[in-house]
Amino acid sequence: MSKPFFRLLTELSSRKWVSQLTGALARSKISRLFIPRFAQTYGIRIEDAEKHIKEYKSLNDFFTRRLKPGLRPIHQDTTRVVSPVDAMITGIGDIKEGLIVNVKGQDYTIDELLNRSPRTVNYNNGFYFVLYLSPTDYHRIHSPISGDILEKEHVLGKVYPVNEFGLRHMKRVLSRNERLITFIQHETGEVAVVKVGALNVSSIQYVTPLPKTLERGQELAYFEFGSTVVLLFEDGMFEPRSDLQLGSKVKMGEDLGRFLDV
Fold it and tell me: What 3-state class would DSSP assign to 176?
């Protein structure tokens, strides 16, 4: 079957109501019967979960599970930015005149990604990470820095898949999908945490209550299925760890790089 045919099928299925229907099933009590098979299929380490597998009331409850304390230590050096999620790096590099270049063969403008926010100007020559969470991964999202939440925005959109096929063959998925955008102010500068919804993600939720001030590694939000987080750093604010590259896997709390001028 041709790529255009697969693209058409994805276009037809990437409607919010499809994800809402999937989400309703995943939250139902009957879905708990699928938890063991789901964990086995995706190689999920059930021994890392905060609770015993039989204690989860639904597939969604298991999917958004917390981990046992201490399994994701936060890097101790406060001049370092930490990964907000367990993920694979599918995009990394400098932002050049407002453009993120060649994420799976496609370019993105910061203006589109941030829904034309006035804050876009801060990131025109900064740095970015694209962090993809597979169904195998832990799906809670934590703050990469300590700081105050300046602003947050919910951007309505599609729910195209953000896996290899979606990023490569669908048109600018990261800036067309539903997004929760959080701007956080650190003493060195501002960071945008863009949480991108995906096919079968029934919702992206902030933790409640959501504090105004966050510590590095503190819970910020969670996905209800696999998706992506885009991290944006202001101009002249950040230097990445030298060994990180496309395809690198990181864990929540792991060092991503250092703040400049600290």
Answer: helix
Task: Give residue 23's domain range.
Answer: 2-64
Catalytic position from the list 19, 31, 58, 86: 86
Structure confidence by residue, pLDDT tens digits, 176-187: 788 899 999 999
Residue 17: phi, psi to the nearest 5? -65, -30
- pTM given for the model: 0.87
| First-residue to last-residue Cα distance in the chain | 54
pLDDT in tens, 105-140: 778 899 999 999 999 999 999 999 999 998 889 999
Active site residue 137: no
Mean pLDDT of 42-68: 94
Cβ neighbourhood burial of 71 (10 Å; 0-12, 13-18, 19+):
middle
* Residue 142 designated active-site: yes
Please state, in angstroms and rounded to a whole number, the distance separating the CA atoms of residues 61 and 222: 11
Least confident of 123-127, 200-204, 213-217, 246-250: 200-204
Q: Name the strand (E) or helix (H) holding 76.
A: none
CATH code for position 250:
2.70.70
Q: Is 86 a catalytic residue?
A: yes
Strand partners, 92: 129
Q: Let me know whether 94 and 150 are in one domain.
A: yes
Residue 69 lies in a domain: no
Residue 247: name the closest of 164, 171, 125 by CA. 164
Contact 36, 51 (CB under 8 A): no
Given the residues 142, 143, 175, 186, the one annotated as active site: 142
Please report the pLDDT score of residue 25 as a whole number.
74
